[in-house]
Design a protein that fits this description.
The structure is a single chain. By secondary structure, this protein is α+β, with helices and mostly antiparallel strands. The chain contains 7 helices and 10 strands. It has helices spanning about 5-20, 40-45, 125-130, 140-150, 155-160, 170-180, 195-210; strands at about 25-30, 50-55, 60-65, 70-75, 80, 90-95, 100-105, 110-115, 255-260, 260-265. Helix 1 runs parallel beside helix 7, helix 4 (about 140-150) crosses helix 7 (about 195-210) and helix 6 crosses helix 7.
Length: about 270
């Protein structure tokens, strides 16, 4: 599943070609993805100018001069294609401008497309309960410590809770916990202040590095221009079960199941 860095890479890629452009045509090749498309989607977007693009958690935002924002989620396998050389049967939403053609391709159809008043984005039900952006100034050790106080749930699962921090996914939580030296099963409320002081910058660093690398190309994901991200070549623990810990401390990377997902960690340096 595309995670925050992959969505950020997508948004930045789209912005290069879409920002400032006027939408000339919108085509819906089916009635829904994970949920039905807004009935007014085509009417509202046709003729609108794209003023800017952004991201909230794992959602991409396309803002228009009609005070309406297209909110998209890539689901399990979604990605945008810019000026595709040929049509794909999984291109479910196609947006055209005078200069380019943008196709949202989603073979598994777990993605979504919504239309939300720009001024109402923070109050939109999906966003209203979300925690701070992990790359934002509001995500601090003090803020995380407060959110974890009294939590008996494993820290790995706490960090995947969008109410604690928005947009973190399995890959980058595993990597950040390794960098901070925290065992993924440790109860959130028992993570010490020094550990949290390491964890917050570790989260920010791993996300920033992945964005710089164009994300992690896993299975179907690619940036809008077709380029493949290469952060996966830097994984310290994710997917490395049975391999030596990169800290060269004699530890061997293990895998365990948490909340229906796999977790990779080093039992020697993560405590």
């Amino acid at each position: 599943m595309p995670e925050l860095p992959e969505v950020e890479t997508t948004v930045r890629g789209l912005a290069r070609f879409m920002e400032g452009e006027r939408i000339t045509r919108v085509t819906l090749n089916r009635a829904d993805l994970r949920r039905p498309f807004p009935p007014e989607l085509v009417q509202v977007l046709t003729g609108a100018q794209v003023t800017s693009l952004g991201r909230r958690a794992k959602y991409g935002l396309i803002h228009t001069d009609r005070d309406q924002t297209l909110v998209f989620h890539l689901g399990m396998s979604g990605r945008w294609r810019i000026d595709p050389s040929e049509d794909d049967k999984h291109d479910h939403v196609v947006i055209e401008t005078a200069s380019n053609r943008f196709a949202l391709c989603d073979p598994r159809r777990f993605g979504s497309v919504d239309l939300v008043g720009t001024a109402d984005l923070e109050a939109w039900p999906i966003f209203a309960t979300m925690g701070p952006e992990p790359l934002g100034d509001a995500f601090t050790p003090a803020r995380l410590k407060s959110a974890l106080t009294g939590r008996k749930q494993a820290i790995k699962l706490c960090l995947l809770d969008q109410r604690v921090v928005a947009g973190l996914g399995n890959i980058y939580v595993c990597e950040a916990l390794w960098r901070a030296g925290i065992h993924p099963r440790k109860p959130g409320g028992k993570v010490t202040r020094p550990q949290i002081e390491r964890l917050v910058p570790a989260i920010k660093d791993v996300l920033t590095q992945s964005i710089g690398d164009g994300g992690s190309t896993l299975r179907d994901y690619a940036a809008p221009d077709g380029e493949l991200g290469y952060f996966a070549t830097r994984f310290d623990v994710y997917g490395r079960e049975g391999e030596p810990c990169r800290r060269e401390d004699g530890g061997i990377v293990r895998r365990l199941a948490q909340g229906g997902r796999s977790t990779w960690y080093c039992p020697k340096c993560q405590r």
